[in-house]
Amino acid sequence: MTYKCAIVNVPFGGSKGGIAFDPRRYSPEQLERITRRYTAELIRKNFIGPGVNVPAPDLGTGPREMAWIADTYDALHPGGIDNFACVTGKPVTQGGIRGREDATGRGVVLGLARGLDFVEDFPGTGLTRGLPGKEVAIQGFGNVGFHTADILVRRGAKVVAIGEWDGTVVVRSGRGISIPDLLEWRSEHGTIKGFPDAEEELPPEAILEVECDVLVPAAIENVIHGGTAPLVRAKLVAEAANGPTTPEGDRILGERGIPVIPDVYLNAGGVVVSYFEWARNLSHMRFGLLEKRLEIANTNALLNAAETLSGRRLSPEMRQNLVTQSDEKELVVSGLEEKMTRAYDEIREARVRLPECGTLRNAAYVVALEKIRLSYEELGIFP
């Protein structure tokens, strides 16, 4: 996490924590008691706080659990005006921020899109520039996999295969898999198996062998290893999950000429927007509040001047389109795109500057380590 935050220029360190149990076997009331007790233990050990350590959702958790954490922390720290900055990924009504739920998936798409702006960096793959028309296979249809698939399709890519723990569905004709239809099917049946639009149904592990432009592992760790890496038929691997490729798997992909956009960069969208939420909680104001009316007034003044100089009137619809200001989610998405784009460019620059890096993964770690080293050098040691 420290490296990931350094790569995307987020001023956080990093840690991981959780409870090893299956939440599907417990009632909501039991889950609430477990979550609150876990929070109490974090507080007891000083492992949580707006200026100490700020958790966020991961496997098996979401906005509901983050709200329980925030409420528990608030109850045990009466009078703390920044208490709700102790955790991110909260419901919007409880200090959360629009855009956090799909942030990791959106970050994956933004990072992949930036990588495909420079296909000359992937010689021999046959990849063409840009996302539109790319055939994508995705392993995992949870939060990250779903939002990655949904946003990819909206940006013109074609999702041809999705794999889950119980099977893989393939649709190559037309526009590929309809993500809303697959989501509805799984919601109704608890599985993607039997999806009526599927042209092929394959075993779960077969998702790695689907012929495609981009393979997106968005499920669990260590799925591309010495046994599976030789079977990958994608032109590019985009790591949306944490640690989906083992060192041996990475080496084999490299030998086969299949480039990898690494997880330590690509799935950083979640922590970027968590940082935005944390900053918003500390400021106690939504993004865009102070400047919104001023920007509207300035835009109207500019349009009035244009009408005066041209002698022509804008239609009310055109004026409304030009004057309408961005809402908070649009600002969050814009900020996330800036973070992901700039981070990729820094990784690419490091790879060019230091050819011995070889891969984007190595270049990403070089970027992170250089920033961390510089921070220690400039701050010094005290006492």
TrEMBL record:
It holds the Pfam family ELFV_dehydrog_N. The keyword Signal does not apply. Substrate binds at K4, S274. One of its GO terms (biological process) is L-glutamate catabolic process. One of its GO terms (cellular component) is mitochondrion. NAD(+) binds at T104, N143. SMART domains: ELFV_dehydrog (SM00839). PANTHER family: GLUTAMATE DEHYDROGENASE, GLUTAMATE DEHYDROGENASE 1, MITOCHONDRIAL. This is Glutamate dehydrogenase. The lineage of its organism: Eukaryota, Metazoa, Porifera, Demospongiae, Heteroscleromorpha.
